[in-house]
Amino acid sequence: MFKHIINEKLELRLLEARHAEAVYEVIEMNRGYLSEWFPWVPNTKNAEHTKTFIENELRRFAHNNGVSTGIFYENKYIGNISIHEINWNSKLSSIGYWISSEYQGLGIVTTCCRELLNYAFETLGLNKIEIRARTDNVRSSAIPIRLGFKQEGILRQVDYNNDRYYDHVVYGLLKDEWRGK
Amino acid sequence: MFKHIINEKLELRLLEARHAEAVYEVIEMNRGYLSEWFPWVPNTKNAEHTKTFIENELRRFAHNNGVSTGIFYENKYIGNISIHEINWNSKLSSIGYWISSEYQGLGIVTTCCRELLNYAFETLGLNKIEIRARTDNVRSSAIPIRLGFKQEGILRQVDYNNDRYYDHVVYGLLKDEWRGK
Amino acid sequence: MFKHIINEKLELRLLEARHAEAVYEVIEMNRGYLSEWFPWVPNTKNAEHTKTFIENELRRFAHNNGVSTGIFYENKYIGNISIHEINWNSKLSSIGYWISSEYQGLGIVTTCCRELLNYAFETLGLNKIEIRARTDNVRSSAIPIRLGFKQEGILRQVDYNNDRYYDHVVYGLLKDEWRGK
Amino acid sequence: MFKHIINEKLELRLLEARHAEAVYEVIEMNRGYLSEWFPWVPNTKNAEHTKTFIENELRRFAHNNGVSTGIFYENKYIGNISIHEINWNSKLSSIGYWISSEYQGLGIVTTCCRELLNYAFETLGLNKIEIRARTDNVRSSAIPIRLGFKQEGILRQVDYNNDRYYDHVVYGLLKDEWRGK
Amino acid sequence: MFKHIINEKLELRLLEARHAEAVYEVIEMNRGYLSEWFPWVPNTKNAEHTKTFIENELRRFAHNNGVSTGIFYENKYIGNISIHEINWNSKLSSIGYWISSEYQGLGIVTTCCRELLNYAFETLGLNKIEIRARTDNVRSSAIPIRLGFKQEGILRQVDYNNDRYYDHVVYGLLKDEWRGK
Amino acid sequence: MFKHIINEKLELRLLEARHAEAVYEVIEMNRGYLSEWFPWVPNTKNAEHTKTFIENELRRFAHNNGVSTGIFYENKYIGNISIHEINWNSKLSSIGYWISSEYQGLGIVTTCCRELLNYAFETLGLNKIEIRARTDNVRSSAIPIRLGFKQEGILRQVDYNNDRYYDHVVYGLLKDEWRGK
């Protein structure tokens, strides 16, 4: 029921238990591609698991500790974008996302990210947002770069998936840098 | 961040912890009028209490057990409208509401109610919604009557407030009756 | 061990875990008849489930939130009668019951009800007790009528069982009406 | 509401939250005498504390883990007698009691104990009940002795009260010994 | 990682989850002998169960309520010795132990016990430690006797194992008696 | 009771509730210096708070999720060194430390760190350990540098303390790099 309208085609919706089937279907369709990048994919075995995930994410929102939203394009669920756990002492959090392969390359995630950055900086009053991407994920890195994030480091072997370790580039954006935009 | 837009002036927003101050302020402003009708008013002593209420209501939403939304008029918080706990076996729930006195008489609650009825019947798939009003609350009763609810009974002395008992009229609307509209 | 003696043949006993077998047996014997009226019957699949029910009901009693008692006739368990959750602000609760088919028609439930009404009004100090019955359950409705309850309404489609909805008659009795008796 | 009737004057009642005031009053009246024997007395500072105690004891009963009952003489609360936590593997528990000073010496506790022993052995199916008394508490020791318990040992310094340690005599009674009676 | 070194061969180590396999293996090897004496043996069916046991014991330690340690001889796990739950009001606890059959008769448990007694009396400031042994377990009783414990009683039928009841000898040692050593 | 002996003067001990006083005293003595670097210092107002911290850290250890140890020099508590929460999927954690000012400059933390690295890599089987230090904390950065950690980035404004934000240098060490040493 609750949404954040971005433009006539694109919305972020707060996922509810009843969305579990639709979300799981898109994960299922993108399983090959998603499992290449995310360690949580093999554990997502059915819509019931997705329902539990949605309920946990809503509980996180209820505790004022970040939020997970569904990306809807022309009323169709096509991916997720989230503000992760918030360090309220440092007013610091990070953003993560994935989108169905057929909708990639249209700038959708960048647009959604911009909205969550506004929410994070203006509404929640956070001071810094980080985005992390695997060094071999050029597509994912393009988003923070386009949004003016600065590269702050490369953390080695912090991501284990499909039997090997991957490095993460850390990008950071400060409230002041965003305001300047 | 999350809202359900009704028209250019009116929105239902999912309340977050950060709204507590604004909500409490409106309760404070309407304290005299609200305490006449609702037993929860004397216990609402500060914004911290309102924050706890909001967090509990979000948790209820997270458990797929109804939802509490803030009514915003021209971006200003002016009251609350909620779907109470859901009996999923009978697909039954009820709706409750209150609105700042200065915004009464404009049909705002009726309009909001209509949206929640759509959400309840069409999205959640409920079968029946009840609205209860004190027999001496003509203004409140006008809403279900206007929306086509049928009066189903008068439950005696079910509401204790300000040292006396009050009766409740129960109004009910079935999914089929709503569909017919 | 704990009982409320009504007369030389009839007692209300606080059910303990060790009663689970005996209770389940009577449910099993009356399964056909009970499942016609109560949605909880299909989920009651074994004595272990009944044990959990008894423990939950005792916990409710421990929290001063109503009580579930076993009806014993000549030392034999024959049914249940309960005070449901209590709304302490309105000093309001309801009573529910069922009895093994072979003991129906003897006025046993009416007698037990009278005892629980005394407990509710005199001991707990409640102000009102409701009894709800399906409109097609003449036998069940006879009890509140006999005890002087007033019919307060017919709530439509609030009870879903065996693939259809049923209406409930609500009967209410006030403390003052009981005192007058 | 629930009681175990022993004779025309004496009953064991399952304590409910509403008894807290009456129980606390008797503790208050006997504070000097009770604090001589029991380390829990100084912490019992008001009826609210007693209410919490009663709720915890009911929860223990709900978990099939012993029971705490109020001794009522001519409908007046005069003390407590309990079956403590049960070791279900060994079918072993113990009994504890105290009674208002003015009712001591009438054999009331012995009579109540006999009832709880029947409940423990016959109803719960326990195999052994122990009673422990401070070596300087002749009055308390008289009860298990009168009931046929055997002295099984003197545990040194297991009870700390009023700045010194006391020894406990352990008395034990087996189911078979009770049956023989 | 954490240990209490007793001598060049013998250590008490705080068990961590990662020790579960090694502990289970020794239990498995001694299953026949252990199940003769301890009722918990049949329930210990795999290393996962042992891991849960270790985690529970660590939680007990975290709550300042006794500790369970692994006996390591020449860096090999060979048994357990524990301080059970502590009665902080009476500053009273008990010690329990078992050791792999091939290491019995070397005085290892006596030596470990001495260390735990020092910890209990000197570090935790307890006032009394009890050790209980089945009357038919001469080997186990030898330990408290050797350490100067006094026999305080024989509790009848407090231990149920392999379809029969066993008696326990209770041995006790006071802080003052230990200090004198 | 449990310790990891490093050399004749230096030990890491698993902190227990009873250490709270000693730990708090050292925090109190170093309050000026510690509050310059750590946001948790102002909240540490008494030994009771330190006791809660120790119990939480022990619970973390019980859940196999890192460990907090006290640094003891000549049997005197002088600081803390911890393995923080563990990401078991990536086998990744970080180490943090502080030491009483009078013991700085003696290489004590470096020595302790080396032990925890062994524990992390060899015993727990982790793959990477990070150490983070404020960019203005030269003394703290010297430790990972001396131990062969590689600088992986500078995360901007991730640490809020005394009304301003600070940057963190992230140092990382892989299991393979440690093994090579």
UniProtKB/TrEMBL annotation, chains A, B, C, D, E, F:
It comes from the Bacteria. Gene3D superfamilies: 3.40.630.30. PANTHER family: RIBOSOMAL N-ACETYLTRANSFERASE YDAF-RELATED (PTHR43441:SF12), RIBOSOMAL-PROTEIN-SERINE ACETYLTRANSFERASE (PTHR43441). It holds the Pfam family Acetyltransf_3. It comes from Cohnella kolymensis. Residues 10-176 form the N-acetyltransferase domain. This is Alanine acetyltransferase. The lineage of its organism: Bacteria, Bacillati, Bacillota, Bacilli, Bacillales. SUPFAM superfamilies: Acyl-CoA N-acyltransferases (Nat) (SSF55729).
